[in-house]
Amino acid sequence: MSNSRLDRNIVVLGGVGVGKSSVIARFTKGEYSEKYVPTVSGFHSKKITVDKKEYNLSISDTTGQDESSLLDSSHIGSTDVFLIAFSVNNRRSYMIAQVVREKILEQAGVDSVGMILVGNKCDLKDERQVSTKEVQELAAKFGCPYVETSSREGTNVEELFDVATRVANKSRGGSSDEEDETSLLDSTYVGSMDVYVIAFSVNYRRSFEIAQVIRDKILEQTGVDSVGIVLVGNKSDLKDERQVSTKEAQELATKFGCPYVETSAREGINIEELFIRSVCVANKSRGGSGNDVEGDDATDKSMCFIM
Ligand SMILES: Nc1nc2c(ncn2[C@@H]2O[C@H](COP(=O)(O)OP(=O)(O)OP(=O)(O)O)[C@@H](O)[C@H]2O)c(=O)[nH]1
Ligand SMILES: [Mg+2]
């Protein structure tokens, strides 16, 4: 582990040509090249802000592996999170990713380490050899996140490193002030709010889990049994990348006794609807019927907090 509290070490592993260097270049420099230059090894760094904290990420790029490659033992031990990449258009690279994971566990001599499965080249829809569902199931078995990226199009690359930082925090035992799930809500928000809009992305299961933790935190910090909440599943346009089903989110909302609205900010789906529902909930929290969304009076202002 590195010395500074906010340094995080990431190693990117996986088969030859799956796009390890491209994902790193997209993230650290915002660049992408179609030209293929095999990597021997490389070291990159970038600062990232996650949950209002700035982390220094050190990212080691590696030479592409196959079934029989040995891992560089210098990586084991000092690494907070392993990104194990494959390309979704190459089934063999998916098998290699699983072998690489075994080798990490074997060399580290533990049952689990911080890792993320990364399915790159998701832009190559017609050439797909590995389905999202299949990898999600494997990731669930491994107990690690799965993130599908395209370094060519920049899809989910920022998100990948957000997730990596969070997993890294967890592998360090997550001192409470560094963990998303355990971070405290800003107390200025609690008490004055009529409605909390708690959002997650339907293509990112961890954000769904975090939404549930946020709700618990709100109840804990407000010290009441129920508050006005609207649960929002955003990015509903990403149909092929879905990790959270509508049914599942609806069931959770029913359990919470709050509405569930599925939105796409990109395509403008249900955005109006979301704010109408929020106003209904806000009215209800103020003791109203919950059906009245009209009001032209200054006292009808609602405080809505989106998290
Ligand atoms: N379509 C598509 N091509 C990609 C993507 N990412 C990388 N590539 C291409 O795949 C090739 C290999 O990319 P690299 O980033 O060099 O792959 P690598 O895993 O670092 O390769 P090694 O270092 O040899 O293991 C290059 O020609 C890239 O342009 C992607 O998201 N989509
Ligand atoms: Mg490379």
Automatic annotation (TrEMBL):
- Pfam families associated with the record: Ras (PF00071)
> Which Gene3D superfamilies would you find in this protein's record?
P-loop containing nucleotide triphosphate hydrolases (3.40.50.300)
GTP-binding listed as a keyword: yes
Q: Which GO terms describe its cellular component?
A: membrane
Q: What keywords are assigned to this protein?
A: GTP-binding, Nucleotide-binding
Superkingdom as given in the UniProt entry: Eukaryota
* Annotated InterPro entries: P-loop_NTPase (IPR027417), Small_GTP-bd (IPR005225), Small_GTPase (IPR001806), Small_GTPase_Ras-type (IPR020849)
Keyword GTP-binding listed? The answer is yes
Q: Name one GO molecular function term.
A: GTP binding
Query: NCBIfam families attached here?
Result: small_GTP (TIGR00231)
Q: What is this protein called?
A: Uncharacterized protein
